[in-house]
Write a structure and sequence with these properties.
164 residues
Length: 164
């Protein structure tokens, strides 16, 4: 499994993985119309146009094909906006490797902390984040294309916990 920086040519596959992950995991929160009819196009447009700054981190995990990605936006505390792995590749350590890779890249940019949101009902992801040293830091609603969805904030105040 190779973890590498995403390239422009990866944008369509990132959008596909992102859309499919939402379709598989957000059925309890978002409408069927949004997930089935609009999300593929919305994600394709999003990943076609999103600006990735020099200190932003977008990594892909690939074997023979891209199997997952992480996108983290640089700020005083790096925000992991997305971490998605193909459903047939879950439980193989890919999500952990991507998240650790993002933390290491953020550390190289002299960042000290990293955080993310996870949908409140996504116990599988929350379990991973807690095993990796993430600390719950409150619940807040997040607007997902017009639907407010409760998300738990997970924080690594010391990026070294995740980067090592």
């Amino acid at each position: 499994m190779n973890i590498r920086p995403a390239e422009d040519k990866d944008r369509p596959i990132i959008a596909e993985i992102h859309a499919r992950s939402w379709q598989e995991n957000y059925r309890d929160y978002l409408s069927e119309e949004l997930l089935d009819e609009r999300i593929p196009e919305l994600m394709a447009e999003r990943w076609k146009n999103v600006e990735i700054g020099p200190k932003d981190i977008v990594l892909v995990a690939e074997d023979e094909q891209v199997q997952g990605f992480v996108a983290a936006w640089d700020d005083e505390m790096v925000y992991v906006d997305n971490l998605h792995v193909r459903s047939n590749c879950r439980s193989l350590g890919i999500g952990r490797k991507l998240l650790v890779g993002a933390a290491r890249a953020a550390k190289e940019n002299d960042r000290k902390a990293i955080w993310l949101h996870v949908v409140v009902g996504n116990d599988r992801a929350k379990s991973l984040y807690k095993r990796l040293g993430g600390v719950p830091d409150g619940i807040e609603d997040k607007d997902l294309y017009g639907t407010m969805v409760p998300n738990e904030r997970i924080l690594w105040r010391n990026i070294n916990i995740l980067a090592e």
